[in-house]
Design brief:
It is a single chain. It is built from 14 helices and 17 strands. Helices cover about 30% and strands about 15% of the residues. Strands 1, 2, 6, 7, 8, 9, 10, 11 and 12 form a nine-stranded mixed β-sheet that branches. The protein has a single domain, classed as Alkaline Phosphatase, subunit A (3-Layer(aba) Sandwich), CATH 3.40.720. Helix 7 packs parallel to helix 9. It has about 500 residues and is α/β, with parallel strands linked by helices.
Length: about 500
Amino acid sequence: MNCFFKKIGLAALFIVGGQWGVYAQEKPNIIFFLVDDMGWQDTSVPFWNKTTPSNRKFHTPNMEKLAASGVKFTQAYANSVCTPSRVSLLSGTNVARHRVTNWTMFKDQPTDATNDSVLIAPQWNVNGLSPEKETSHAVFATPLPELLKENGYYTIQCGKAHFGADKTPGANPLNLGFEKNIAGSAAGNPASFLSEQNYGNIEGKVNLRAVPGLQKYWGTDTFLTEALTREALLALDTARMKKKPFFLYMSQFAVHIPFDADKRFIDRYAKMGLTEPEAAYATLVEGMDKSLGDLMDYLEENHLTKNTIIVFMSDNGGFARAPRMGKADTQNSPLRSGKGSLYEGGIREPMMIRWPGVTKANTINDQYVVIEDFYPTLLEMAGITKYKTVQTLDGKSIVPFLKGKRDNEKVLVWNFPNKWVANGDDEYVSWLSAVRQGDWKLIYFQKFGKLELYNLKADIGEQHDLAGKYPKKVKELATLLTKKLKNRNAQLPSYKKTGKTVPYPDELFKK
């Protein structure tokens, strides 16, 4: 009798296990392809209503292929610098709430490292994201990969991580729900893209920006972008052997500095007459595009295309300063400014989604969305509806927008109570907050107590400040921005002379 029930039990276990295995494989695979510092115009795919000279300069056939098979979002946003965006992605919280308002690198880095003569930065979360509540100066959150892993996904981090400061729990992607980490660390950029330089690894010297774990490619003439892609494909093989759906966070270091030329593509841009730095930058873009194409080819070859969602995104606006070609802050034209700024050039990103069976091929969506929206979105795409987080989610699923709905009342908020770089241009890249609702956008220049108003539908380049013309709209948005900042317990800088915190936007009307 006992033997009989044991056999029945084993059979039932086998059936249940088999059903789970099938179910797990039927869940959609997800590739989140994140590019570092890629501007809205750094592609042959136009994200505006016309093709621009910048679009004609770059060669990204695989982005074109993805756009032709999916939906292109023309008003997608991130934060103005990298770690804040990456933390928003993995936590689903807005930068004003999670307080990782600048990039991280060193543990407990001084908050006054980039202060100036007027303002002092607040004690922001310099240590980034942490899965442990005890980590000082860090945001404690339930990471997105952890929830995916708990629901049967094989979770892979490949390339740039930059979620937490060096020697903190968040610096190691394996502590954030990733089962496989390829080359991810606290570093915000590689010491080198070149295998001839061992990606920055020099014997006897410590370089926190040296790319870890790729020793087999040293000295092999393999560009970093290519090495990461090859390792990502091997990780996908592992997921298939495990018969698990996969979540691949493909986070290329390209197109961030250093602008090392990928010689596989340099001839094209040299013949175009580009300057050496700009030609090198264009090769980084094309190498990134090849990586995307290699992943899509893998899906085709292994019959995974129909069951794999691809999301393409950048983490902040394009780098618009030397050594790139041309006048500073014109690289993202028609958008104004670039990385570090809350003008559109610093926060508007190229974004595409292909979700077989849901998205329509070769379509355009102009609903504005922001990077923290991906937390609930990806969980919904994965069919995960019951989950708990220790943090409050600010992101809202964009799945309804993929199915034709729209929200013109949606509110986007940014907060950057820091100075971006020691010698940066204060007016454009430091001490800023902003809000967008509908076509209207208000930017608060904290250092100068100044508010600028723009209608993005009529003026995508933010060339015409309408604050004087529409004072009621300025007050309305200043009140809305203040409400959101207070609700999220956002930080503001303080005056060095008095120690007082700069006023909230709505307080400018009470003087």
